[in-house]
Every structure is written in structure tokens, then in C-alpha cells.
Amino acid sequence: MSRLVLIDGSSYLYRAFHALPPLSNAAGEPTGALFGVVNMLRATLKEKPEYVAFVVDAPGKTFRDEMYAEYKANRPPMPDDLRAQVQPMCDIVQALGIDILRVEGVEADDVIGTLALAAARDGLEVTISTGDKDFAQLVRPGVVLVNTMTGSRTDSDAAVMDKFGVRADQIVDYLALMGDTVDNVPGVEKCGPKTAAKWLAEYNDLDGVIAAAPTMKGKIGENLRAALPRLPLNRALVTIRTDVALEQGPRDLQLREQDADSLRALYARYGFTQALRELGGVAAPAAADDAKVSLRGTAAGYAKAGDTAPAAGTDPALAAKGEYETVLTAGQLQAWVERLQGAEEFAFDTETDALDAMRANLVGISLAVEPGKGAYIPVGHDYPGAPAQLPMQQVLDALRPLLEDAGRKKLGQHGKYDIHVLRRHGIQVRGYADDTMLESFVLNSTATRHDMDSLAQRYLGYTTTKFEEVAGKGAKQIPFSQVGIDEASAYAAEDADITLRLHRVLSAQLAAEPSLEKVYREIEMPLVPVLARIEANGVAIDAAELKRQSSDLSARMLAAQQKATELAGHTFNLDSPKQLQAVLFDELGLPALVKTPKGQPSTNEEALEAIAEQHELPRVILEYRGLAKLRSTYTDKLPEMVNPDTGRVHTSYHQSGAATGRLSSSDPNLQNIPIRTEDGRRIRQAFVAPPGRKLMACDYSQIELRIMAHLSEDPGLIRAFEQGADVHRATAAEVFGRALEEVTPNERRAAKAINFGLMYGMSAFGLAKNLGIDRGQAQDYVALYFSRYPAVRDFMERMRVQAREQGYVETLFGRRLYLNDIHARNQGLRAGAERAAINAPMQGTAADIIKRAMVSVDGWLADHADRARMILQVHDELVFEADSAFIQTLQAEVEARMSAAANLRVPLVVDTGIGENWDEAH
DNA sequence: GTGGGCCCGTAC
DNA sequence: GACGTACGGGCCCACG
């Protein structure tokens, strides 16, 4: 379907002017607002709409001024620095091939409204691009709202409801009630978004609210009655007209070819280097992006924008169905080997009979060297009537020289899995050069999914064949080895083909962002084989000991359960928060002091602690909970996870697991093994070194706090680290004005809570809760802290501002975290995004550093593989298993490499422990 | 039966 | 509403 984008030029210009710093070009001409608008336009055009209009206000009075003399009366004249940017803006819009509309007697809003509805009637998809919430009144099927500067999108009644708490058809009444100070339209005094939404929910529309006014209670009722006479006028003023007589219809607004020469001159004049670079030296600039990814090599073939691309901004050829070959004969295999030999880089993928890479058996291999073509080589399909396949060994032997050659570049999607499978079938993959999952992750870690199906949809507009479609799901699922070869081939060859196509698109996007490409190339890709080795190494556990612990825990749980039954007067399920809530708060009448996010009375630890003085039961529940958690999550589970082939536990590390760049771990998660309580530490004791070996745990001391010192450059905090071992004590001494040795335990505890809390963007409220002090005192602590470490406060504010202006924050190494909610209307979401903006540079930089250290250490370990192995990573800690006689050498080398993984303004200290088990090694 | 939301709790 | 990033277990309800 063709698309029309209506751009609210005036609104963007004003918003960019106020949101961005007062930039200027070399000649001193102001460019800040222009820069924002140009970025917005470039983003809009990347979506390749067929029709576009840039609508601005015409000078002079409009019909609204006739209706209401005071309309916009208190609006200051346009600042000179902004006025100076209007003409350049129009020049750039023209050069981009976009029509500019300016209609006298009405506002830009009315022109947009009229065109939007006309276009929707005409069967076009309409996108209104604006920063103005008033347009929400136009949202309906076929008409969506986007704010390209913030990335927000309002595309349905549900989305309007979500943002404003009213339906799209109630927006006019909603605005009429609230009024608009900027336009000098007074609404009902003290009636903001909340009240307006509440009334409309109750009385449906403005007429309903007006009818209910006489009986409305309180001050707000008086205010409403006072405002009654002007509400109909308000409604008229905020209603966007959709019946303006226009010279052009929607279909007259076709996007024209852009004038590259003019654009280049304009971009150069105003210093827009990124935009200029995108134009490049290519004759047809609009296709510059495409040229890099084009299958047809059409560098000069400027495809008209709005071509029938199935997804926004993609090359149609990249979304077409491919042609796939099933390799069943030696001749076919040989032909493919030759094809791979001639390729600069090829994509490969394995099919197996299980998800667990450490157990799965190879069923087939797929390959691709050019987009749209692919092969599947089945080697393990086994079902009645299955065709004869090439012997697995013959296939592996034929491919081995290619897969093991470090000089021959390979590409995959989540290739770590395939590396495991192939290793377990006798092939050591080398030269694994690119991974589309990691490309996607580095480009935008906030996108939660980086699986191939999602990427294909997102970047190619291509709908892949799903695993479930060929193998079924749930109880009806069959192993891939029993899937018919023809079906399997269509599915599997597509995987390799799509991986290749995705790489064309993603690598081009990375190339446009050098700092991200560096993160991808220098941190993430080198880490892949390292993680594969750590996972393959696995860790030895004492399963018998864990089973003993399970029995012990069970006995204690039973005792707690009996006690609980006695105290409650009847049996109930202690594992059920719902039943527990009924017992505590309904039957026993204890106060429900804490609520869950959904408003239910909470039974979490904090809530139970709060009522533990009043009744015995809460303590018993807490005891039970602690035991149950340890048993179900750890002592019962871990023995089940021992791999029968290796006798060890092999976790999976997810490289695209956490948006900040941290790894995550699952199946089992070995990054949350207990450490704080005695019972918990017993579990760590079951992570053991085999006879003759020892475990060594090396962790970065206070790495995130050190990074905060580095990034903020705060002299006081830097000094605290230089002073020595205990930074919390040093902080307490500084904040409370004591000598180091005079710091009391309470002062140290407070300093520690502040240090940690700050890194998470915690408020005085949170600190008060944490320390059990009142809010005023917590506020005093924070103020005192910031007075001693002012650069820390500046750093945090800088991160908030950067997040708001750029939409993302960065780590020391250039990794980016986009904050999608940084401009959310919902205050809670927005505040959360601000906290994440503060935390991400520290957490993410720590992640970058330990990843670099892992690659470095792994490089050294390659020559000592029989004496020492890396076996675990827990965010700031690396765990090794080594021959007892080798431990000292290992310790010196690992500590040196970990410390050298970054060069900060404070020392990067590593603490090491050694023992027979993981607990002892701490 | 299964999938998913919710609540809770473990780690850094 | 109020502290960032994860994973996972049990409950419980909707759904097929």
C-alpha cells in the first residue's frame, strides 16, 4: 500500500530549536534547529514513502484569530536565531524532493488534517510526523502519528488510550478541558491530564462533563463551573479542521528525485558531516545506502523512493523468496565446495535434533554464498522412506578444510551454537568472521529480540519459515531428523540464505557507525570463540553433595510447613502468594504495608519483615521461602544439569542477553549462585575442582564505582580510590568529615548505600528505605555527598541530557544504549529511562572491560590448555580451573591481563582467591 | 497440557 | 512512583 507522510514542519523546527544546544557552523550561522530537522527528515526518507509533504504555517492571521482575539497572544516573536534557520530549512526540504505546503488563513495543522483524511479515504496509509500531541485526535485506521525525534509512535486507539488515558475521539474534549497555555487558551483551572481523562472516562464527552458540572463537588467543581462558558470555544479552537480547500490532493505530493548537488552544498555549508557522508561520492545519492547492500549492483540505478518495497527501507530483492538446492550426491557436494572456495565469505548453519548445543546431534548443514541461493546437505534424516543421504563423515571431511581455515571468512546467526555442534562432530571452526545476531545487538541492543526470524522481518521485510511450521510444536513436535527432507531443505537453506542477506544490510549499517563497528569487530566477534570454549569446558559439581543438601533442605521445609499450618489454623500452600495473602491479611488481619506493582498486598520479604514483630507466621514463611528457593532453583536443579558425556555442567552465555552489554547465563544460570547466606554458600562449595586441580576466582574490585570515578573525573572520588583498599570507608570519611579510622560502621554503611544507590539512579526516597532513616536525613546525606563529589552529580545530569538529546548513552568503548522511553509521557517510564541512562555507561563499560579481559586471557591460555581453563564469568569475576602447580603462574598472568583491559584514571584492581571449591576461592 | 503473566528471589 | 541488569521457579488462569 502506498504511504503518505505529512510532516509538521513548524512543530519540529520549534522543538528542535529548544531541545538542541545552540550549534552553529564555521561561519557562525545558527544550525541547531536545522540539524534536528534534517536528521528527522533523513530518518523519514529512509522509510521510503511514496508521497510526502512538509507543511508549515503561513504568515498572517487565521480563522482562529477571528474566533478568539487572544489566540496565541502571549507567544513571543520567533527568536532571530531560529528565524535565520527557516530559509535554509526550506532549501534543504526542496533539495530532498519534498513539497512544501503553506496555506493562508489556516494553520499547518488544518492542512495536515485535511490531507490526512482525504488520503485515508483514498486508500493511502497516512503517517503524520509531528511533535504535537493535538494530532492524536486524528488517529484512526489508516492514520498513524509518529514523532521521529523521539521515536514514539501512536498508531491505534489503544496507543492513544495508553498515552493519554482517553480515546482518540475524546482528544478534542480532553484538550478543551485542559486548555493550552502556549496558545493562550485557558482551560478549567487545576484540570490537568489526569482530571480531564477521569471526567471523560466517567461522562464520555465534553457535553457529558458540562451536563454533570452543576453537581460536581469541591474546588475543582467550582473551577469547572467557572470555565463552562468558554468550553465550546475551546473545543472549536483545538479541533483540527479537515475540510480546508486545497489546491493539491494527496496524490499530487509524490516524492521527487533529490537534488544531490544542492544537498551536498547545503550539508557542507552547515557542517552536517554525517549527512554528507551518506551522500558519498555516488551519483545517485538517495541510493547510496542501498548501493552497499544492493544485490543488483545498481549504484547508479536510483530506485524511486516508494518503490514496492515490502518493508520500510529495504531492497525488494533482499526480501524475495530464494531458490534452494538439496545436496544428495557427491557431485553436488563437490560443486558446492568449489563454490565456497571461490567466495569471499559464506554463510553456514547447522540443523540438529536438540536445542542444547552440548547434546545435539548433527542432522544437516546449510550453506549460502550469494543472496537468494542456498543449499541444504542432509546427513542425519531418519524416517521411513527417507532418501539416501551422503554419509556424515564424507560431508564433514569435504567441508573441514573450509570451516577450519582461519583465513576463510564465515558468517552465521548465533554461530556459537553451530561452533559447538561442529566441534562435537570433529570440526574446529576457525575464521568465524561475522554474526548477524551480534551485528543487530550492537546496532540496537534495546531491541529485545535478535533471533533470525525477527531480524528477517525487521530488516528485510521477509517472513521466514518457522521451525514450528516444519517440526510442529508442543507435544506434537518431532525431532528435525524426522522432518521430511524437502521441507527441511526449504527451511534450513533459507536460514543460511537469510543470514547472508541480513549481513548485507546490517554490515552496511555498522559501517555507517564507526564506533559501533569497533565494538562489534574488536569486542563482540573475538569473544565468540572464547565463550564457546568456556561453555565447552563446563564446571565440575559435586552432585552427591547437592543431593544431600536437598534432603536437608526438605526436612527443614517440612518443619516450617508444619509450624505454618499450626499458626494459620489450617493447611495452605506456602508457595502460593495468593493463599498466603489471604491468610496474613484477611484471616489474621495483619496490616498490608507493601503493595505489588499491580496493587495487590505484597507478601515479599520487605512486607513480611514489616509485620514480623506482630505475629510468628511471617518469620516462618521467610524461613520456608529461603529454603524452598535454594532447593528448587539450585540443589535439585543443578545435579539434573550434569552433561552425561562430560560429567560437568555447561551453562549457555548469551551475548545479546542484556541491553547494557553484559552477558547473561542460562540452562543453568550460573551467574546467580547464592553467596550471601551460609546455606547459600554451601551450594558454592559443591562447585569443585577435580583431583590435582584448584579453582581460582579473580574479580574486579568495585569496578563500576571506579568507572564512575573515571567517567565523572571527580577529583574527590578518584582520590578515594587512590587512598587504598576501602572506598566506602574513604567516602564516609569524606562525606562525614572524619579521619579514615574514625568512621563508624553506620557511617560506612550509609556511604556504601549511597555509592551503590547512585549508580542505579536511586532517589533520596530509595536511600531512606534502604537505610531505614527518614527521607529528610537521606536527602541531607545525598546533598552532602554531592557537595563533596560535585563532578559525580554533573556526570549524572550529563547522562540524562545526552539521553534526551541523542536518544542514547555510550560506554567508554562506544557501545550504545538507546533509551526508548526517555521521552515517554508516562512519568514512571521516563524516570526509569533516566535511571537506566545513568546506570548503563557504568554497567556497560564494566561489561566491555571484562569482555576485553576474557579475550586477552583466552589468547594466553591457548598455549596452556592442558594446565588451565577459564570456566565461568559472573559480570565482574572470572573463574578458572587449573593444575595446582600452575596456579601461581596463572594468577599473575590473569591479574595482569584483567588490570590492563582498560586504562582508567583510577587503578583497576583485581582480587584473587584460590581453593578446592568456589566458596573457598572467594 | 501449555503458554504466559505475576510474584518472588538469587546474582552482580 | 520511588534501585540498574539479568534468569528462573511456582502459582494460576486462559486457552485449545
Set down the secondary structure blueprint.
Layout: E1 3-8, H1 9-19, H2 32-46, E2 51-62, H3 63-67, H4 80-83, H5 86-95, E3 99-105, H6 108-121, E4 125-129, E5 143-147, E6 152-154, H7 157-164, H8 171-178, E7 179-180, E8 185-186, H9 193-203, H10 206-212, H11 218-227, H12 231-238, H13 260-270, H14 273-279, H15 288-293, E9 323-326, H16 330-341, E10 345-352, E11 362-368, E12 373-378, H17 392-403, E13 409-412, H18 415-423, E14 432-435, H19 436-443, H20 452-460, H21 467-471, H22 485-511, H23 514-537, E15 540-541, H24 543-568, H25 577-587, H26 605-611, H27 617-635, H28 637-640, E16 652-654, E17 664-666, H29 678-685, E18 687-688, E19 693-700, H30 703-712, H31 715-722, H32 727-736, H33 745-759, H34 764-771, H35 775-788, H36 790-806, E20 808-810, E21 816-818, H37 827-861, E22 868-873, E23 877-883, H38 887-899, E24 910-915
Parallel strand pairs: 1-2, 1-4, 2-3, 4-5, 9-12, 10-13, 13-14
Antiparallel strand pairs: 5-6, 7-8, 10-11, 11-12, 15-18, 16-17, 19-23, 19-24, 20-21, 22-23
Helix pairs in contact: 1-2, 2-5, 5-13, 8-9, 8-12, 9-10, 13-14, 16-17, 18-23, 19-22, 19-23, 20-22, 23-37, 24-27, 26-27, 30-36, 30-37, 31-32, 32-33, 32-35, 33-34, 34-35, 35-36, 36-37, 37-38
The structure holds a DNA duplex (12 and 16 nucleotides).
